[in-house]
Amino acid sequence: MKSKRNAALKKPDRNLFVYWLKKDGPAWLILMPFLITGIIFCWEPLLSGIRISFFDTRGFETTEFIGLQNYKDVITDSVFLTAMANTFKYTLWSIVLGLFTPVFISLVLNELVHGKAFFRFATYFPCIVPGVVTSVMWLLMFYPGDGGILNYIRSFMGLPALQWLNDPSMTIMLIVITMTWGGAGSTAILYLADLQSVNTDLYEAVSLDGGGIWRKFIHITLPHMSGMIKMMFVMQIISVFQVFQQPLTMTGGGPNNASITLAMVSYDYAFATVEMGKSTATSVIMALMLLVFTVLYMRIKSHSMDE
């Protein structure tokens, strides 16, 4: 009897498998194309890049295993150190200029009475303009010569021309302004959607207590938006850390590497000097830095929530 019972326990439950297949099978069939393309175009290049970073390369082919030598060469490269410092500057300026600008825009849009549809479209319109077009447009604005639009306006007002993108102290800030103009609209729309879910009775209660706009913002609006702001904060750091298109189009990393980024260093290793090992090593270092920042942020967030 015991042997028959043990055999019955070891026998696979086909009814359970059929039930699972009927219940979750269609969902897996729908997800399968995305899983396959994700593996082919995301995970396979990612793992291949990590593997290549430990090899010496000739062109795009690996030759011999050299361990961490590519990482040592990259970290000791003065251009890499400059690019890393610039990337932190991009991140800092993006927080100063780009983090709170969408919040302000969303608050203004939320208070509008007339022309809501037009102003929402005008806010989102820069996001649908191709990134290269946006960069070229702002390049014409900040062009350091007499043909630059801003310098032309300054000369019309009797003011001297500025160097703009040729000034190393201004380059990163101006590029971040370009990035903010092109991307703030989509974030502002997300904030606006979040604001639509605020219970208006709370505002009425504050008004009855004699509270003004500032008190409503501090005690109701900001706490309600805090979760979205924290998420966008992390997303913005991840995005800015990979900035590539704007400095490449507007300055080429100049003047004198004043606007070069880690992504541009990886690009130069890959396509200028054709050193794929160093290129992938730079990308891995970027990924590790982003991972550390994200984990640190999540730990701080969870600790503050526990308190």
From TrEMBL:
GO BP: transmembrane transport
Cell membrane among keywords: yes
Superkingdom, natural source: Bacteria
Xref: PROSITE patterns: ABC_TM1
Keywords, in A-Z order: Cell membrane, Membrane, Transmembrane, Transmembrane helix, Transport
InterPro entries reported for this sequence: ABC_transporter_permease (IPR051393), MetI-like (IPR000515), MetI-like_sf (IPR035906)
Chain segments annotated as transmembrane: 27-46, 90-109, 121-143, 172-193, 225-244, 281-300
Occurrences of domain ABC transmembrane type-1 (ranges): 84-297
Topology within the bilayer: Multi-pass membrane protein
Gene3D superfamilies per record: MetI-like (1.10.3720.10)
PANTHER family: ABC TRANSPORTER PERMEASE PROTEIN, DIACETYLCHITOBIOSE UPTAKE SYSTEM PERMEASE PROTEIN NGCF
Name of this protein: Sugar ABC transporter permease
Native source species: Candidatus Ornithomonoglobus intestinigallinarum
Organism lineage: Bacteria, Bacillati, Bacillota, Clostridia, Candidatus Ornithomonoglobus
